[in-house]
Design brief:
Layout lengths: L1 E7 L11 H9 L4 E5 L10 E6 L9 H11 L4 E2 L3 H8 L3 H7 L8 E3 L5 H8 L3 E6 L9 E4 L2 H11 L5 E5 L3 H4 L2 E7 L2 E8 L19 H14 L5 E9 L2 E8 L12 H12 L3
Parallel strand pairs: 1-2, 1-3, 3-4
Antiparallel strand pairs: 5-8, 6-7, 6-8, 9-10, 9-11, 11-12
Length: 279
């Protein structure tokens, strides 16, 4: 029996390089770890007291299977952030829910069929949009395009078959002011980096790419977490300023990159959260 299972996918059987910081930190604490692929039928998930999603980065290709796996996992082990939170966050329609609850979120409309494209465009009323699959990871299927029904329908045919497509207005600020990713461990702010638009290329984990959050951004995150009403072991909040107001692009609660290379102490803090889960 191991203490902790770190969950990954077939493309990263040993976990991404950045998560080696976490593995080493857990080892220094004497916590026994194993790495397991989320859809490996031979894994006994009850063999670990705690499970941490770190790189199940192909889950969006099998969304129904992944959600069933999350449901079963809830009865077998303690999952950091919780299976219900992970399932909620996996469906990007959460952006619409948060906006309806008064959180500043980039306007988002869900398209469930080609017949709903025209009403969705009328709701956004923009000439330049970003389309992304309802279930997606990183930049999978995320494309900037003209707000024409025919163009969106082609994208829907390719990427909308497993739950639909989300469309948003293109936010010009992302090119000038860039997306900011704020990392939180155990509910406390850790560090932040600028990220490339549309996930193009690796995020540079170098001092010149560090972002110092504004007071408004930190207040925004406090408000967001309070609205969720559940304690979070880790989170990454991806923001863009729109007319000076922090606005949510994505809330990453499943297995985001936490940029341990940029701030190795964050791996220590996550290891501490994992240790607390044993108590």
């Amino acid at each position: 029996m191991t203490d902790v299972t770190l969950v990954t996918c077939h493309d990263h059987p040993s976990l991404p390089e950045d998560d080696q910081y976490l593995i080493r930190t857990l080892g220094r604490r004497g916590i026994r770890t194993r790495i397991a692929i989320w859809n490996d039928k031979d894994v006994d998930w009850s063999a670990s007291s705690v499970t941490v999603l770190r790189a199940a980065w192909d889950s969006h290709l099998r969304p129904q299977e992944f959600q069933r796996w999350l449901t079963g996992l809830a009865t077998q082990t303690h999952l950091l952030n919780g299976a219900s939170v992970a399932s909620w966050n996996f469906d990007k329609a959460y952006l619409i829910e948060l906006r309806q609850r008064g959180i500043d979120v980039v306007p988002t409309v869900l398209i469930l069929s080609p017949s709903s494209i025209e009403p969705a465009l009328a709701e956004l009323s923009t000439q330049d949009i970003v389309a992304k699959p309802r279930f997606g990871a990183d930049s999978f299927g995320t494309t900037r395009m003209d707000a024409s029904a025919s163009t969106i329908e082609k994208h829907f045919d390719t990427f909308g078959g497993q739950g639909g497509l989300l469309i948003q207005p293109f936010i010009a600020e992302i090119e000038q002011q860039r997306e900011r990713s704020l990392v939180f461990i155990g509910g406390r702010y850790s560090h932040a980096l600028y990220r490339n638009a549309f996930g193009s290329g690796l995020t540079r984990q170098t001092p010149d790419n560090f972002h110092i959050p504004t007071p408004d951004e930190l207040r925004y995150c406090d408000h967001l977490f309070a609205a969720l009403g559940v304690p979070l072991d880790y989170a990454r909040v991806d923001l863009v300023p729109i007319d000076g107001t922090p606005t949510l692009m994505e809330l990453e609660l499943i297995d985001p990159s936490l940029f341990f290379h940029a701030r190795p102490t964050a791996a220590d803090r996550l290891a501490e959260q994992i240790a607390l889960a044993f108590r």
